[in-house]
Protein 1
Amino acid sequence: MTNIEGAGVRRSLVALSGVLALGLAGCSDGRSAPVSEGDVAGLPISHFESGLKPAAPEPDLDVTNVSSDEADRVAVATIADVEDYWSDALPGNFDVKFEPVKSLLSYDSDGENQENGCGDTKGNANAFYCNVDDSVAWDRGVLLPTMMDQFGPLSVVTVLAHEFGHAVQYRLGDKAGISRNTPTIVKEQQADCFTGAYYRWVAEGKSKYFAVSTSDGLNSALSSLFLVRDSAGTSATDRSAHGTGFDRTYAFQIGFEQGPTECAAMTLDSIQPRLTERPFDSGDRDGDIEVDQEAIGLLKDSLDQAFAGAKVQAPEIVDDGASCPNGSATPPATYCTSDNTVRIDLTALAELGQPVDQEGEFTGSSSGGHGDFAAFSEVASRYAMGIQKGVGASLDNANAGLRTACLVGAWAAVAAQEGQQMRLSAGDLDEAISDLLRPDSLVAADVDGKPAASGFNRVEAMRTGYLQGSGPCSTQYG
Ligand SMILES: [Zn+2]
């Protein structure tokens, strides 16, 4: 967030009040198209161990320099699996004959140099599609094992399915609108979308190699997409932009929900209006502010203004250790129904709100900070409980969690507008999504702190509020 300094200049927020009023009034009626916590884009919520199936067949593929490492086992199975998927999906959806990639290369970026059409591999901790020789290559020495340690085997599946998505793009050519001048962001969005389409096929139980549950399994796939996001402050028009975590999870979800033809139809014009990647505004510094008493005061003002239209008594925010005399405590922030207060543990919130260490997150050495906006979102979510209580909505079921995430998204959109004293800055939305996908996140949790089981639904709920305002929060999560 950005705190506009020297702010005796209180910019006017009045014009914005009422923005979040409409939907909330409908909390107890108007239930068109409700989303059930019992499904994820039409598939039942499943709970089982996700990853390589114990009885997976031995892939029949030629891979240069392959080892017997676990990372290679998962990588080679992924290639075999995505080839299975696309050998039906390409002719089925696009009337294009499937051709496997011409070569595959496993290497250790710390070990002996290998070479392919795109050059040397020494020191290149990466996984990539190389269009020069139509090959896919991956670093089994550093990149893959690090990802697996942090996010489990599905991170490898996610990254290589994405890289294979680029190979698919070259096979589709015109049919995906791809030319020499296609901006990187379009290619990346399509590849993430193709990854989502493939994951749906796996989640439907059609893969010989992998099992993915629609709860923890998909959560892990989404988190690993997030891992390879661009750094905050990258412009979406940058030639090498890959999209923010927010943008990337969106593309993945479109593929999962609507299939590969929607992915191929993405163009710069169609995606630009929803892309959130933007450079830091001047004066944002690095986009993180201290989570302290003053910031909580600004947050309270921002929330009061944003939710004024609901015309209910706004909850007070009290720093007293997140305990509630007559209700569940959900530290670091608790909504206490008995006296309509949000009780916070400011020290714990400040810790959660430490800047994100993207490098450390990757290597596992991060202090665990999720950024200021993660901390503010947690508080905002408990505040939104108070607003929901005020309009008579249920607070203790999965829909309450998703509705809350939606309202936090709607508030974030107000906070993104010009002239806010506490304003959303580049990278903030990714902090919220990274927080949302944590198992103990409050942002999509009910009043007792129980999060909605599906991270996929949590992310979608917050995005819905962010892009469409509070209206759908009550209609879809009634
Ligand atoms: Zn890519």
Protein 2
Amino acid sequence: MTSPENTTTSLDRLREVAVEAARAANAHNTQPWELRPGTDRIEVGWRAEDALGPSDPAHRDLRLSLGTYVESLLIAAAEQGIAVDFELDLDTETRRVGRLRPAVWPYDTGFRTSDIAGRRVWRGAWKPQQVDTKAIGAAQETARAAGFRVAAISAVAARPLLVRAYHWFFGDPGIAEELMAWTRLSPRHPKYHSDGLNDVMLVLNRVERFLMGLLFSPAVYRALRPLGLPRLLTPLSSSATAGDGVVLVILGKGEDTAQEVAAGRLVTRLWLDLFRQGIYVHPQSHVIDCPRTVGDLAALCGAEDSERPLVFFRVGIPAVDPSLRPRHPRRDLPQQ
Ligand SMILES: Cc1cc2nc3c(=O)[nH]c(=O)nc-3n(C[C@H](O)[C@H](O)[C@H](O)COP(=O)(O)O)c2cc1C
């Protein structure tokens, strides 16, 4: 660790690492975070236009994504010897999750910027190979230390819930519209290289790409939805529901939404640790958001009364090498 440094310097230097922190996982790749510099602190907030609506009805994913960003920022800052800490202070009115303040020492972490840079989501097919139970045990221990519980359930048991949740997801016109607003099916899309979900990381082949563009176009979607279109769309996500791997579910206690920011920080630590072991992650939020599956999911996890699922992610070994595909992009940072 490097020695403590001057207050203003540590905050000024945070901008240097903000680019690296922006590689944080975030729902729909909207990159909702915003750093708001002040004299003795930097607020971490979000931009209203990058917060999802119907696809994230409780804004749980928003708070989780801001947590993944904060953790990534602290890791990147620590590597540069920048001494800051994070104070959680959620305020919906001003769209703030908390603030970064100068600290005596850099954040204590075993992760490095290269871990943040290498991590990526995997939505493709999985090898039958099972994830080492030691890795799952370690994730459960890390979660316990952070005040959360990780339940490990089989993908086979979760599949009926996932399929039901996909029907709900694809059948909701607001969600479908939002999905298409953030999906970039071709490099010709003006925002293909800056944000959203691209065809490559959605692992769509040419036919699926064409079908997605066609079936989600407003007129076709409106006409076919009452005829059972959502069921037809679910196979687009077949690799997400297939196989006999493991799903990890992070459970929190009580209704306090601020804990979701802390859970997002935990997600980063778990994801980076798994990634170091060659284990990939696919979060799937709709099974928690869908009113017809969240209760069954809680029951599968053996949730106590006060516990609720916050994050659902499949873990495993990809069937093809993910590094051969371009990653989801990030926007350039705004000039200040
Ligand atoms: C809180 C949260 C929820 C997410 N939910 C989903 C999801 O439901 N389905 C999915 O395919 N990916 C999901 N993701 C993955 C993001 O879409 C992904 O992180 C983002 O597109 C950026 O890509 P990258 O992680 O490869 O950098 C989620 C990620 C986070 C942090």
